[in-house]
Recover the amino acids of this structure.
């Protein structure tokens, strides 16, 4: 089957998961647990590991500046517990999705059936995917809307672990991946620099290494850079196929069709807005 069908299914439903990193419901609950600044993000996404150390987060999240991670995780597990953070994250997801009216979007059951089938198929292939495997051990929620959120969370981390493996295999470091992403024009450089917090000298050094490899042309990707980035995306798509092959091409196309209104509702409700 075509990887493009699977990619479309993932991309259209991804906002349903991604909103958890932006909504105030999450930040407020993490703050109530004593997690301030960026600690809430790192602790909540890594809590499935248990008391994850900063080094585990650095390894599995891949492209964040290690100093930022160490500062953010320094006292996280002195303040709260992984179970409390996981509960707060799930409660925040449910509240935010309902605030956005996601429970009113038609065909929830049909969308969930396909997404969950793909997520459960992914659970047969945890090898080499540590962040996914940690989340796969978490219990499924009872609420169908949260089940859909959990299914997409699993599919996101499954794909993400494959993406990290591909970057590593191609000799692209975390900060270099960010420079390539910025050069593609898909995401503003300023946002990537702020959110990943690499010092300017590290960003500049990465830029110079990529230029030496012939991957940059001015502030944009060179022909070779475009080819490498496309290869990385194609390989990431291929590594995600154990999940989506369970649906077949028709199932992926159907999931993409059903997922579109969910993704649109997340965007229209402002659940991906920063600040």
């Amino acid at each position: 089957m075509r990887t493009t069908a699977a990619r479309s299914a993932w991309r259209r439903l991804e906002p349903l998961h991604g909103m958890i990193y932006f909504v105030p419901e999450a930040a407020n609950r993490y703050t109530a647990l004593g997690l301030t600044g960026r600690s809430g993000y790192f602790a909540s996404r890594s809590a499935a590991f248990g008391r994850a150390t900063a080094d585990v987060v650095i390894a599995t999240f891949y492209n964040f500046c290690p100093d930022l991670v160490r500062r953010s995780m320094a006292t996280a597990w002195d303040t709260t517990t992984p179970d409390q953070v996981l509960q707060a994250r799930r409660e925040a997801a449910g509240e935010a999705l309902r605030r956005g009216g996601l429970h009113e979007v038609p065909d929830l059951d049909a969308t969930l059936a396909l997404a969950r089938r793909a997520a459960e198929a992914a659970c047969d292939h945890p090898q080499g995917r540590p962040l996914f495997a940690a989340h796969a051990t978490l219990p499924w929620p009872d609420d169908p809307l949260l089940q859909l959120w959990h299914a997409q969370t699993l599919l996101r981390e499954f794909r993400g672990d494959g993406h990290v493996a591909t970057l590593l295999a191609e000799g692209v470091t975390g900060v270099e991946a960010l420079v390539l992403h910025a050069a593609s024009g898909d995401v503003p450089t300023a946002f990537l620099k702020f959110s990943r917090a690499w010092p300017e000298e590290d960003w500049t050094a990465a830029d110079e290494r990529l230029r030496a490899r012939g991957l940059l042309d001015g502030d944009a990707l060179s022909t070779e850079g475009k080819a490498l980035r496309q290869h990385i995306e194609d390989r990431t798509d291929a590594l995600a196929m154990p999940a989506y092959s369970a649906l077949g091409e028709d199932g992926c196309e159907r999931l993409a069709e059903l997922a579109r209104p969910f993704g649109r509702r997340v965007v229209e409700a402002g659940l991906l807005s920063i600040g």
Notes: The chain has a mean pLDDT of 97.
